[in-house]
């Protein structure tokens, strides 16, 4: 069991506990020798770390994303806390608690069932076939249930992508009641698949980061490519439906400046974009208010991303 | 009963039917004489009109917003159709059908009841008192039920503002289920009041137009002023609640560039902004798709406001 | 042989000549009858046309993109010239000259050979295999040689896409001389494929227009999808090369606001973007200067797209 | 008398002097205990401070905005100077010099008289009544004379708002000479009232900060609300004049992006906006040049707000 | 004396009166013949004109900017009025009234004297020498006194530039009183010279238009070049003063996006920019309000340049 | 010979080696005494330095840009490394190696010859005369061959401006082959002169920095002024050619927002702008990739200037 969490560490602490190795860079010193720069992470945050001795050897005993026990000293370097590492020991799965390292809400299994029930109500056979092609894919399903929707801003926990999709599906159903002209099957399928590219854009293991593919292609294109591949496996998939679904995925960021190469041009696409945004921003405000209250403050810190402070009342 | 509607008129038609006088400008000719420029309107659209003889006398027999019978000729002037008016006769209320002149959906009464029921479920006594202060105001209530939410883009029909608020309330209830931390009473009260300033920003009679007050102050400020006035009449109205509600109204356009002097800084304000946007854009897409299909086209005309064409499939 | 070209027509002309039917809309009149709106096109421009009688029957005798002989009258409607059509006769291929209808530079065959020679110098076997997979595709090759790079701004003629690619390849070679660290094979393959999606984004027949797929997905995504499909057919295609090429295609518009979902992050991608832009803008300036001089003017008309006038000296 | 000023403090200094408590946050440590974070301020700047022992008790002996004597040590924490506090003693008014804590120009009384004289020249009785309603308000008048126009950029000293209004009034008079069509009474009343909302948007005591109302509603709306309230107390106040004045206040930031919900649409409103901007920017340049010269430099530091350096020659 | 002014002309009028030839384009018809396109102008506005017969010969008998008597017919072409010209007769100076053709305020001579007096108060001998180098230049002086500050938006009449500079000088003097640290001599010299480049950027004869030099270099650079040339003729002109003055001219548009290659970095430059803007916008509002009232309207037409309507009360 | 380079220094190092004095500020302490702030630079980077004793005397023994030997201690101050200086000794030219202090590629002489050969091929005699007026200017030529094109982003080494111009000339020649309508002489002359203003905008000695003239006027205007001065010395220089060349220089940043007061309006100007951009961005990517690889990383650090990371593969 873990005792020392990142958000508790203070200058001068002696450290001896386990973390995820979230970054691992073997670099060259001026004198030709090597040192090892790392980022250590647990469920409360992350901290930089550096190891000066035997860096080459130590770098070989663990991989990025492994859980390692770190012994060392907490120092201050250029105004930030940093661990000066003395010893690193890789741990086996039975030697650590995953829940010490990442956040996982307890109700994820319930949400999964409820979301599954909504998807089961889709009537169009091609939409169903496409949903099932992903749902029944042994590589896809476990990845989907543990993925985050993002690294920091909203639904930034294991299972976050599923929670986000479920909330959007609930909003989509309300919209279908208000606007019967909406194609419910297209909209729900698009909700399910809109962020599927994030499964490849980021790693969703203990260490979460953007992949090279993610940085070069982005999750909109990757998602379309995954969906296209599944569509290719469904006989007689209607061309019109294919275009509607791919358009929803490509346009769901709403504006070119936000990274969609096309803007929404169908009613399902415009609804998808706005419920995505509504849910994401509400979840972000909810997180910020919770964090602000935990610090005993009435107003949040200044948030550069949205250029404002938030009232936690 | 009306036979000649604006969207049927063609160059060369002899015209003899009634319209709303949606604009009325008595202007001076170079030779010092007067002529009368008008805009005529019915439920299908609007057309310019001009009267050259006796303009001063004729201008005195009707007011802006009156229903007048127009006799004249449909010409083309500078590339647009225009009525060259020969005779104008003001009509009495029993001489025309209001439904020929403005759009009014048939289900508005049902929507009013459903919306009323949602508002009745608000529990906070100060929120309830504020809602009732408007709902039971004889000047406000009939105006609210016939107001438009806008002149052209969305909910651009009599009763549109009510429909829009009802749809937002439905979405607000879904959001409260997903995010129990939302203050349902604040959110529903804000939904009800967010556009109340539009009742003074525009006229909502047969002729709809921006008022001088509307052009100078805008509906965000006017709405806050109306709400403040009602709050002043409720003893012990909590200051915190006053700030929350006024902030929701002022910030509901979401960004400075869209005319909000402050950006949303509470979770209810951010939800209000996004469900307003979601409902407005969906209604606009729905209208454009309907109009495009009525013209027998698959793709809409180019829409400068949103810089795209829309697929009506 | 054609005598009456679009840019010669004047109000009052009796018209009897052939054109491409570039648009064809059967619409409903207020009285329930039908009329036929069209756009007629030849190599000098396009003009609107309308047929009032027997519209339903006439609409059945030709398709969008057919060449039709049109008999009628040139009128002015709402400030623009328009053909009031009396009779339409579809023509067979031997009854018209394609060169009267579209622009085709004479040196296209030479350019094709030179471009082919440059591509043949690519050394990486996977790049070569990918290039050949397109070049030897019987559907692709003829389409590529007659495609335009755009409808209006630059290389807006049959073969324009080929000319544009060839010019970019020449510039790419200069850049490889100046910057030996550039991967010549990746860059030339990317030049060849960067706009391949335009082959499906637009029709490249007598009538050129955006397709539904083009409007919903855009040529960046379509191009990546075409390339991915060919890559799937090449055994052992390296993943790194796949990412480099797809990244070049997706990012070649340079900025999100210009429709690229990712910005250039490799040196080949940044070079591709800039030589595309350099060649496109130079070609556009060249065309505008030529057109301005043909009108006997020293300065071009105001160009809203680039917010300036151009000096034709 | 104060000896140790913020801008003199260096790492390692022993501190024993008085400051304004400009921020006071009682926070929870990881071990469940409390510590007290503060910001200390005097007329030369501000510095962070932290107290680790007995934080709960000490927090009770003074309020935000109080003047306190601080005994402690100046340390460096994460690259910034910080006071490690050992003892805090609240002072009485006779135990400190206000002029050590805030800037107050000596000529403020003269400026007040000159500004009063200009306002007295307003002829329109309703404008006069409105001006007097504020001027003779015992809550308003002392607040107005000590308020700052801003925290940092311009007129950032006690009395700054008055100085700024006086300078604008002088410019307004010049403009009235050049443009006799300007309504002098409207313009001068608007100058006097344009920033009145800042009296509630910020505190103007020893510690200056944005209030909750200020952060949620902004000074444009607050100002209009204050003015509306005074107008309500003046019988027969003309509606046209009410609209003109409120419009001037709401639009005086000039553009939506700068926080005005409406843009200036009267000539007095456009003049008000531009003289406000002219005076504010000139005052800011004047301050920056003075500070730059005091540091013995020819060029100012880089100023992110206006993205440039300024020449102090 | 002139009877028919541009703003009185109506479709069908027989025309026989004089105008300035504000544009003159000899163009080629499809059949190889020539026609002459013109723009005719008087003090009330401008109108297009076309001459079909003998275009080549007629084009030789007058120059752009000449005053010509035009006989013809007022028609409507593509939705705009146009003169179909039958005969053109060039007039001599004694055959027309300049005041029928351009606007010239009566008080220009007074303004010139007052402005001259202000400039005479400049004390710095190098500033004085520079001012005099322009003022005593026989080419410059008469051009300065009849130049416009712009074609349409503000001070768009003969003498407008002088009026604009005088108004700015008055504001500059007020600013020097408020901010004694301003260098009055630098500021007044900069006011005088800030738009001197407009004398070459546009023609300021009867026909006003941008010159080729103006379109290619802009008045900021041209102005600096003119000033530099005069400075070269003044022995020992201080380098610091040269930089201050050229910087004021180059930066007076305030922001890069408005065409200044550098932003204001001295206090005189920031004041110059803001008083220029203040005076220009006020003059524009004043003109729009006057024009709106003359049409008997309360609100102006929509003004695309500033995206609003203006209240003329 | 130098042993201690900036990028090797670590906290705690004793320092005794030579550097360029890249900044030198004598400042006032609170107690009235002086201290000396400096920036020290060599070919690997720069570091802040401070001297507390005898600051006034020491400041007199060297000038900004001199090479000085520094003895002191490397400390950390507010999170950054800083040299606490004990002794400063100015060096003579024979006491240091210039190549330790600045970067100078070895092939600069070759590039100079090749560039000279291209310029020699210019045929227009006025272009040639203008080129030679600079090339044969004893002040200009050595400055041109050692100047940098920029401080940091691209061609940021001694000789960089020459390399940049040579690369652009090579691209210009390719463009002239592809677009024979380009005026090769104008384009090559413009390439040679487009950044000539940088010779005065920055110092290009051991210490490189913006000059006061550079900060106030910018290199576009300074360049035009230098060119105008040379043109004045060439008899009968054609006005059209003068306008073309000055326009190329003024517009070569492409857009107002990038600091060009006019946008490109000739075909040579648009080509110049785009090849400048192409070469600059490619050189910057090349540098970033090299630096990233040297650190043993696959992806660059985040680059705020272009808002992305770059793949160094």
Structural description of this entry:
Six copies of one chain form a homohexamer. By secondary structure, chain A is α+β, with helices and mostly antiparallel strands. The first copy, chain A, contains eleven helices and five strands; from the N terminus they run βββαββαααααααααα. Chain A has helices at 55-60, 98-101, 108-120, 125-135, 140-146, 160-178, 184-193, 198-201, 212-232, 239-251, 267-294, and strands spanning 14-28, 34-42, 45-51, 67-77, 80-90. In chain A, 41% of the residues are buried. The model of chain A has no long low-confidence stretch (mean pLDDT 92). The A-B interface holds A 167, 170-171, 174-175, 177-179, 181, 240, 244, 263, 265-267, 270-271, 274-275, 277-279, 281-283, 285-286, 289, 306-311, 313 and B 167, 170-171, 174-175, 177-179, 181, 240, 244, 263, 265-267, 270-271, 274-275, 277-279, 281-283, 285-286, 289, 306-311, 313.
The greatest interface here is: A-B, 35 and 35 residues
Distance between the termini of chain A: 36 Å
What percentage of amino acids of chain A are in beta strands? 15-25%
Structural class by helix and strand composition of chain A: alpha+beta
Uncertain residue segments of chain A: none
Number of strands of chain A: 5
Kindly report the spatial arrangement of strands forming the biggest sheet of chain A. 1-2-3-5-4
